[in-house]
């Protein structure tokens, strides 16, 4: 039995050596000057591709940044306008309540405060949904690599 194992080992070694020698002959490297030329050409190609990729990435990053800046300024402006409008309504309602000025329907200060609270809640939910849709649109544009103008 030991005889069979050593015989198989020698046959495997011989076949492996022949296969290795064939592979070495078929895959032998080029001469030194050809190899250096190939390496130089590959390096130049890689450098060019890297430079192109870098400039493309910089341009897209700039576009995305400007798009985000425009969208956020639009949202900030909208929020500011709405908050000023709400402030004016609250101020008006407070002055009406403080001066005991009755409206045409003779509403009390509590009724005015309740109405104003309802209006604010409704406007707040509308503003929240507007902001949410703007942010989702911006995210979608960024995910699709298509900054909107």
TrEMBL record:
The chain crosses the membrane at residues 9-28. InterPro entries: Desiccation-related_membrane, YtxH. This is Gas vesicle protein. It comes from Sinobaca qinghaiensis. Keywords: Membrane, Transmembrane, Transmembrane helix. Residues 42-57, 140-149 have a biased composition (Polar residues). PANTHER family: GENERAL STRESS PROTEIN (PTHR35792), SLL0268 PROTEIN (PTHR35792:SF1). Residues 35-80, 93-149 are annotated as: Disordered. Residues 119-139 have a biased composition (Basic and acidic residues).
């Amino acid at each position: 039995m030991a005889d069979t194992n050593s015989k198989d080992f020698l046959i495997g070694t011989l076949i492996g050596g022949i296969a290795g020698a064939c592979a070495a002959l078929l895959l032998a490297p080029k001469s030194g000057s050809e190899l250096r030329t190939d390496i130089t050409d590959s390096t130049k190609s890689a450098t060019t591709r890297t430079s192109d990729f870098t400039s493309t990435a910089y341009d897209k990053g700039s576009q995305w940044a400007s798009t985000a800046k425009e969208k956020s300024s639009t949202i900030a402006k909208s929020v500011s306008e709405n908050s000023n409008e709400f402030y004016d309504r609250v101020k008006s309602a407070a002055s009406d309540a403080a001066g005991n000025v009755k409206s045409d329907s003779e509403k009390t200060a509590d009724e005015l405060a309740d109405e104003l609270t309802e209006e604010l809640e409704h406007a707040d939910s509308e503003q929240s949904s507007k902001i949410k849709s703007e942010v989702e649109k911006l995210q979608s544009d960024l995910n699709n690599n298509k900054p909107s103008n």
